[in-house]
């Protein structure tokens, strides 16, 4: 076998291996969490541990947020008013966040939804279900349940039922999976991913993982909204997944509209280190309803108010109001991050093509020569009028042709080898 043929076969083999790996990764993407370099070095998501609270302050020492989760540099907070903060340093249980500015998307959504009048009569126009499950199935509410944790049957299930019932009353199909994922440890999200994948088989329009927080102060979430005492909600977006921008845009829309009809039912959006299985679809969110020191009834009423915003934001019920932004589930709507993903695909394609060309050519100089010859012929044939061309020299002629003084023909040796191989085979 000649050197040229050997290199071509190796190149084709490597290309096939690459395609096989891509197919395998696509097939396993649903059952395995999205991988990132950061996730290789960090611990798994471990949140809502009672007593494990981080206070986030701005650069002037004012408290912005309190969360019962690991906080990392780079985490971000979007307040209901549209203020955008990013964590820049952490010392013990206190994080310092820098004010980035007012978020233009939230300001635009807030302005639009504040003027939106939604028809009272709601007519279902989409049959896709909303998928709901609980990663931390032990989470409970102390004043009502008697404990912050009840393994396999926490009070969080009743909060989930309140969300389900309100959505159904609004004309939305719901697929509620009550599979427990105890214990409440670092691997809970790996176990709940199997549940999320099962829900994905029914082609949901959104996925909600419902939790409660672990902040000791009940008044941090307690508010009097729409003539009732409720527990506020927080929307959490994992920033280590390829759909992060789409998830975040969905969260902004949901917070903005929910607060326009039941202000301020959504406390904030928190983008945290992790993926929370949100790489499965662009409308996957983690919802925290109150904390363990709120009553379960406060959480049930709070999540019911949040549910009122879901059908409109997803475009599930009622005629779309004139001028309303297309729901993120609309195929004609621009999905944040789409151009970035396309850029990665194009870059990887060019990289793979360049590697194949280099392997098949055998050297960098020959690869450049072939690429130059190819584009020269293609552009010449495209822009110039067609004219008769001299017949190409056959391989034997190339093998015996004498190059001009000082000129090296990069194909001469290969042509001679191919000609000699054919003579031997004959």
UniProtKB/TrEMBL annotation:
Q: Enumerate the Pfam families for this protein.
A: SpoIIP
Taxonomically, which superkingdom? Bacteria
Say yes or no: keyword Isomerase present.
no
Q: Where is the composition biased (Basic and acidic residues)?
A: 391-426
Q: Which NCBIfam families match?
A: spore_II_P (TIGR02867)
Q: Which residues cross the membrane?
A: 341-361
Q: Where is this region: Disordered?
A: 389-426
Name the record gives this protein = Stage II sporulation protein P
Keyword list (alphabetical) reads:
Membrane, Transmembrane, Transmembrane helix
Origin species: Desulfofundulus kuznetsovii (strain DSM 6115 / VKM B-1805 / 17)
């Amino acid at each position: 076998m000649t050197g040229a043929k050997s290199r071509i076969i190796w190149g084709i083999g490597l290309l096939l291996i690459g395609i096989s790996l891509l197919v395998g990764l696509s097939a396993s993407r649903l059952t395995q969490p999205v991988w990132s370099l950061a996730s290789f070095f960090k611990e798994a998501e471990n949140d809502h541990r009672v007593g494990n609270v981080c206070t986030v302050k701005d650069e002037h020492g004012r408290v912005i947020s309190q969360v019962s989760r690991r906080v990392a540099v780079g985490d971000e907070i979007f307040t209901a008013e549209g203020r955008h903060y990013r964590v820049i340093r952490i010392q013990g249980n206190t994080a310092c966040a820098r004010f980035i500015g007012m978020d233009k998307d939230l300001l635009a959504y807030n302005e639009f939804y504040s003027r939106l009048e939604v028809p009272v009569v709601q007519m279902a126009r989409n049959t896709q279900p909303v998928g709901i499950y609980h990663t931390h199935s032990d989470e409970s509410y102390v004043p009502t349940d008697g404990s912050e944790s009840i393994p396999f049957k926490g009070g969080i299930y009743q909060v989930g039922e309140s969300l389900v019932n309100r959505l159904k009353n609004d004309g939305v199909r719901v697929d509620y999976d009550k599979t427990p994922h105890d214990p409440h440890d670092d691997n809970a999200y790996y176990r709940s991913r199997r549940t999320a994948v099962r829900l994905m088989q029914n082609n949901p329009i959104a996925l909600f993982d419902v939790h409660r927080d672990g902040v000791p102060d009940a008044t941090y979430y307690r508010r009097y909204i729409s003539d009732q005492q409720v527990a506020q909600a927080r929307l959490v977006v994992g920033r280590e997944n390829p759909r992060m921008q789409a998830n975040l845009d969905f969260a902004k829309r949901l917070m903005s509209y929910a607060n326009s009809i039941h202000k301020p039912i959504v406390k904030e959006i928190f983008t945290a280190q992790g993926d929370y299985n949100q790489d499965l679809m662009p409308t996957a969110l983690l919802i925290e309803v109150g904390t363990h020191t709120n009553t379960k009834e406060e959480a049930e009423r709070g999540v019911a108010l949040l549910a009122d915003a879901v059908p409109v934001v997803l475009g599930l019920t009622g005629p779309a109001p004139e001028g309303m932004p297309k729901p993120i589930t609309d195929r004609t709507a621009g999905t944040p991050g789409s151009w970035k993903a396309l850029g990665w695909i194009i870059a990887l394609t060019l990289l793979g093509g360049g590697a194949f060309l280099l392997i098949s050519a055998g050297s960098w100089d020959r690869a450049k020569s072939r690429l130059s010859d190819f584009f020269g012929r293609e552009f010449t044939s495209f822009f110039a009028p067609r004219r008769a061309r001299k017949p190409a020299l056959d391989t034997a002629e190339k093998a015996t042709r004498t190059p001009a003084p000082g000129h090296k023909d990069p194909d001469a040796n290969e042509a001679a080898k191919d000609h000699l191989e054919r003579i031997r085979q004959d």
